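Following up on my earlier thread - several people asked me to post the actual chain instead of describing it. Fair enough. Here it is, all 261 residues.
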Amino acid sequence: MTGMRRVVLGLMAVVAAGLGAGCIEVEQSLGLERDLSGTAGVVMRVNLEPMAAFMARMQREMSGKTGEPTPEEIEKARAEMLSSSTRTTPQDFEADKRELERNLPTGVKLLGADFEEEGLRFGFRLSLAFDKVESLRAIKLPQKKDAGPAGPGNPVESPFKDLVVRDDGDEVVVEFPLQNPMSGDGKGFGPLPDDADTAKQVQQMFSGLRVGFRITTPFTVVDSTAHRQEGQTLVWDYDLKKMLALTPKAQKAGIRARFKK
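Reply from S.P.:
Thanks for posting it. Predicted structure:
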């Protein structure tokens, strides 16, 4: 299993298991020029270290034990997770980069791709240039054919497939659905359980959750749903607390910005 593919499949496996445990960070970015060409990027980081404690706790419960797992039990669970994982070689990742480049849509160029892996932490960074922004919708990252079903709202399989950039003459509108893994709409894992102890464990598992999006343009912002503006960049930054507090109306509004040319 190769580098980028392992990253995607690793996240899919966690998502499909309904765990989402540990630290999962996904940030997508879009840089637009006046002619709506530009650059785009995807960064994903996964830290499954907290999963070791979760697995150790499950093993204790299955064996009839109570209380928190010991450091020795956590280390044993961590070692088991490491032994069952597939490591990535530089050659593997280079092969994935070549595959990605071969399958990029016309007018899209790979500027860079980096992969990092250490213990139960892994992630990748991808940057692209495009002539026409609509070409981004056709990008698909390398996938293993027998990967099985993806989890809800996997953002890195086709990272920009739902992106809409509309030229309305004097204005440009950017819209992108917000994928909320804590939603109860059938597309996420669902809200916190009613049981206080279970809810606490879920919050611990999702404690490192972060979903971000950045849009940089030379245009003037008319209005947006962004959390903040940094110079010419609009920033959306969702952590667990913000995800849990999202109203259906706010989630439906998603990532949206309107600019005056």
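The chain has a mean pLDDT of 79. That should answer part of your original question.
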